[in-house]
Amino acid sequence: MAKFYNIANLIDKDYENNDYLSINDSEVDNTLSNYLNEHDEVNTGDILFIGSTYETRQYYGFIMVDKRNGIRWINSEQGIYLPFEESEFKDYLSKNQIKYKELFNSLPKYFSELSGLTYEKEEVAEDYFKNGLW
Fold first, then answer.
1. What is the pTM of this model?
2. Beta strands in 2-129 (DSSP E)
3. Partners of 4 in the beta sheet?
4. How many CA atoms are closer than 13 Å to the CA of 84, on its beta-carbon side?
C-alpha cells in the first residue's frame, strides 16, 4: 500500500507562512533528494506533497517517489495522475501490488481537493482499478 507524506515544511521552513515554496528549484531538488536518501520508510510509489514554487499552483506540488534505480521522482500537473505519467512505471506499480485506495480515502480534505481527487473521485477509482492500482 502506498503512503502519503506532507513534507512541504521540511523542504522550505517558510512554507507554512507563505503557502508556497520560496526557495529556488535547485534547492528544492537538493533538499528533496537528501530527504529521500535519509528516509528509508519512503518507498517507490509513495506520494509526497512538497509544495510548489508557483504561488497560485500548489496542486503542482505532488510527486511520486521512484527509488528503483537511485533516487528520482515523478511530477504531474495533478496528484491523481502521477502513476500514469510513465507507462513503464505504472506497470511496475501494478505488478508489485502497490495500491492507492486507502491513501486516497484517507487524504485530509485540503490535499484531496488540491490533488484533484475531490472533483473526480469516481473516475480516479475507476482508472486506478482498471490499472490494478486500487
1. 0.96
2. 4-6, 47-49, 62-66, 72-75
3. 47
4. 14
